[in-house]
Design goal:
CATH topology of the largest domain: Heat Shock Protein 90
Structural class: alpha+beta
Shape: elongated
CATH class of the largest domain: Alpha Beta
Keywords: ATP-binding, Chaperone, Cytoplasm, Nucleotide-binding, Stress response
Number of domains: 4
Largest sheet: 8 strands, mixed
CATH superfamily of the largest domain: Histidine kinase-like ATPase, C-terminal domain
Oligomer: single chain
InterPro entries: HATPase_C_sf, HATPase_dom, Heat_shock_protein_90_CS, HSP90_C, Hsp90_fam, Hsp90_N, Ribosomal_Su5_D2-typ_SF
Radius of gyration: 36 Å
CATH architecture of the largest domain: 2-Layer Sandwich
GO molecular function: ATP binding; ATP hydrolysis activity; ATP-dependent protein folding chaperone; unfolded protein binding
Protein name: Chaperone protein HtpG
Organism: Mucilaginibacter gotjawali
Strand order of the largest sheet: 5-4-3-6-2-1-7-8
Length: about 625
Amino acid sequence: MQEKGTISIHTENIFPIIKKFLYSDHEIFLRELVSNAVDATQKIKRLALSGQYTGELGDLRVEVAFDEDKKTITISDNGLGMTAEEIKKYINQIAFSGAAEFVEKFKDSKDANEIIGRFGLGFYSAFMVADQVEIETLSYQEGATPAHWTCDGSTEFEITEGSLAERGTEITLHINKDGEEFLSKHRLQEILDKYCKFLPVPIKFGTTTQEEEDGVDEEGKTKYKSVETDNIINDTNPIWTKAPAELKDEDYLNFYKQLYPFSEDPLFWIHLNVDYPFNLTGVLYFPKLKNDFEMQRNKIKLYSRQVFITDEVKDIVPEFLMLLHGVIDSPDIPLNVSRSFLQADSNVKKINSYITKKVAEKLADLFKNDRKAFEDKWSDIGLFVKYGAISDDKFYDKAKDFVLLTNTKKENFTLPEYKEKVAPEQTDKDGKLVYIYTNDPDKQDAFIQSANKKGYDVLLMNSPIDNHFIGHIEHKLENTSFKRVDADVADKLIAKEDAPEHILTEEQSTKVKAVFEKAINRAAYKVQLESLNPEEMPVTVTMDEFMRRMKEMAAMGGGMSFYGSMPDNYKVIINGNHKLISRIANEENEELQTQLSKQAFDLALLSQGLLTGAELTEFVTRSVNLID
């Protein structure tokens, strides 16, 4: 048997899905209905500007009200309004967007982009919280009669003559039991603040009490009286909708405090404003970072035509800039049908690249125009720059001119400047440049001092990302490697031709190595004798640079889990030219020989903060006994 046909989809099947499962968060209903009301208001304004509506506009606004006793929430506007026929067209036909039709009609006008709605489904979010919805509306069209529409959440509806006397629309939700949490002034204010804080039409929600001057009393003191005023919850013209030339630093700082009232002032900001090949506005702030970077994330708010969408912006904002704060607004960002999150497409990639480019240009300008101010901020912005250099080659191409290397003396150098500074002393016998660094200057102070004595400069690399940054820079810089200052003794950090001669005989060397292996007696510590400068420490404990770096990357989740599971292994480097080692080699008393060896080894551990607890107590006790 063979048969062909078409699949039949009935509203009885799809309507419950739309009203119950389209939106993941039920609070979205208020955003959708208020946005629709703003659309209607923007439309009547557009028609008035084009001369197609010649009546009085009045005080254009949207109002949200609720009645806890009647269990209703009402959203009203004095916008375009609808006729009965338009209700049938825009409300009864699911997914027919009046906004889409309006934009198409006025597609050559910039103002058409102010219309928010796209999919024609937002109205039905009302049924997530209401078991009955009523519409009272009166169209702006001359001679129109008011209409009343009601629906109980099924596919049945009723349209009758309405009672509205003035142009606009009033939607009343009869809240169901599951939606009673929204019959609260605090809860509604919270939702309005979240989603509607910057809508382009004033949103009234109840009233607020303000104190106003009311003359003076008999003693000449100013009197005040309480006055009830409309509670307008939104700023209709936020700074990202304005041209940068209109704004002062104070405006940007005040807006930042409005967004993040408990944060310190930002370091600086970038104003985004582009209209080709996509529309994008916004302001991104560089904050002062805290130690908990995860707490800093998800602080960029995504808007579409001033309607809040989400603070999950990982697709549109490069990963390395996720620690920035601020606002991005674009009508060209592809949203899913419920306008709750992003959908991937080519525009997302273009916007991502644009933001990367603008940030790089801003940083380059700061460095070029005021290097000292840039250096003062480096401890805060260095993380962004290094992360960007690692994760984005295009960003690195720009950042390589202003990325800074800081040494233990707190001096800053660009990559070319640092190469010029250290090349004379830190080029090894094979012509390879070696950059020496510390990630803990206090703990590694003894190694730093030894390196400095040899004329070596030591870089400070102690941010959470520096381990990855070092590996990345090694690939970018020609014939250059990094070594941590405690990866070896100073004489061996940079291989030179002029190694000191060994003063111990072969027999003494064998004896010393055996004494230390017996005294240490730990499998993780491998003893080796070296011919070093007599002024260096008698014993130094190091970890191989490659192994230590791989283990640190594994600890940070850098994909090196194999190395992370391997045990720590150390080199115990015996300075064969130190006078203490010569004494041990010539000592006939085996007990004293062992005690001196343990003491030299523990001193090496102590210098790196590796000696604690009982071992430290034993070291002190042994020191007293040896003195005695």
